[in-house]
Amino acid sequence: MVEKYLLLTPGPLTTSEKVKQAMDFDYCTWDDDYKKITQSFRHSLLELAEVKEDEYTAVPIQGSGTYGVESVISSTISDDDTLLIAINGAYGQRISEMADVYGINHVDLVVDEREPITLEAVTEYLDKYPDITHFAMIHCETTTGILNPIEDIIPYVKEHGIVTIVDAMSSFGGIPIDVKNDKIDYLISSSNKCIQGVPGFSFVIARKESLESTKGMARTLSLDLYSQYIEMERNNGKWRFTSPTHVVHAFYEALKELNEEGGVKARNQRYQANQKHLATGMEELGFKVLIDEKWQSPIITSFIYPTADFDFHKFYQQLKSDGFVIYPGKISHVPTFRIGNIGEVYDEDITNLLQAIKEIIQ
Ligand SMILES: *Cc1c(COP(=O)(O)O)cnc(C)c1O
C-alpha cells in the first residue's frame, strides 16, 4: 500500500473526492448518454476559453498532454510549411523533437530557461526567416514555472498571416486566456492540470477555419486532429477509438467544480494566493526563487538548492513521509527543485508544508 500524500506537482495533481468518485462506474464508450457528456464538456471548454461555437471547436485526443501537442504538430503542418518554435524550457524543446521526428521544417528560437520569450526576439526571427508559416510557444513553461507573455507575442505573429500554436497545458483553466483576442489558432491543454481532473486525455481548442484547412495532412492515424474533429461532429461526440471513459466522467465533474469555485478568475486567485504564500514562506526559510517575480507563474515555483551539498533525495523522502510530494528540478544551469500549488491545494496546506520544511531543515 502506498502512504497517502498531497501532490504538489503540476499534474497529475490532487483531485477532489467527488472527482475520484465519478470514476467509480464502468461506462460504455459509444452509448448516447456518454456521447452527450463529451459534447457537453467540449462546449464547456469553449466557454472557459470565452470563444463561440461558430468560430472555434474543442477536440479531445486520447493520451497525455504530449499526445495533444503531437496531434497538432503532426497533423496541421504540411511538408511545405516552416515552423518557428520559441524555446525556453523542456516543453518547447519537445516540440522541436516532434518536428524532427516528422521531418517538419523548423527554426528554433532558443532563450535562456530563466528568461521569458520576448516580442523583440520573435520579431527578429520573423524578419530573418520570411518562410515561416507556423509559430509555436509555451504559455507557462512548467520546466521552471516561468510565464511567457503570449498576449504580447501571438497577436503580432498572427498579423503576419502565421498560424499560431500555444501549449497552455499547465495554465488553461488556472490563468485567464483570451483565445480570440490573442489570435490563437490552436491551444492545447490536458485533463489533469488546472481543470483538476485525472490523467488520460488532452484537448485542442482550435479555430475552425484553420483546422478545416488541414484535411489529409496527418502523418499518423491516431493523432489525426482533423479526423477526430469530423468524427465528433458527424457522430454527436463519438471518439474515434476507445476513449478514457472514467477519465471523461472525472473531467466532467471537475469542470462542474471549476464553475462552482467561480470560474477561471476565482481559481486563478486561489492559485496566486497559494504561490505567494509558498514563495514568501520559502524565502523566509532561506530558499531563493529561480524566476524573477515579474515572470513567475501562479502554477509552480523553482527553488535554488540552498547549499552546494543540499541532498534533494533525502529532503524529498522526508517531505513524503510528512505527506507532501514535490518535484525535482529540470534545468541545466542551476540545481533546483520545484513545488507546484495547483489542484485541491489551499492556504492551510501551504502553511502545513512550510511547517514541515521548517522542521526538516532545522
Ligand atoms: C505537462 C505539460 C505537457 C505535457 O506533458 P505530459 O506528461 O505528456 O502530460 C506539455 N507541456 C507543458 C507546458 C506541460 O506542463
Describe this structure in words.
It is an enzyme of class 2 (transferase). Residues 57-336 form the Aminotransferase class V domain. Homodimer. This is 2-aminoethylphosphonate--pyruvate transaminase. One of its GO terms (molecular function) is 2-aminoethylphosphonate-pyruvate transaminase activity. The protein is of the alpha/beta class and 362 residues long. It folds into two domains: 6-12 and 262-361, Aspartate Aminotransferase, domain 1, CATH 3.90.1150.10; 27-259, Aspartate Aminotransferase, domain 2 (3-Layer(aba) Sandwich), CATH 3.40.640. The protein has twelve helices and 15 strands. It has helices at residues 17-21, 32-48, 65-75, 90-102, 119-128, 150-159, 208-211, 225-234, 245-261, 263-284, 312-321, 347-361; strands at 6-7, 56-62, 82-87, 105-110, 134-138, 140-141, 146-147, 163-167, 186-190, 201-207, 288-289, 300-304, 324-325, 327-328, 336-340. The strands form four sheets. Strands 2-10-9-8-5-3-4 form a seven-stranded mixed beta sheet, sandwiched between helices. A four-stranded antiparallel beta sheet has the order 11-12-15-14, with helices on one face. Strands 1-13 form a two-stranded parallel ribbon. Helix 5 (119-128) runs parallel beside helix 6. The chain is globular.
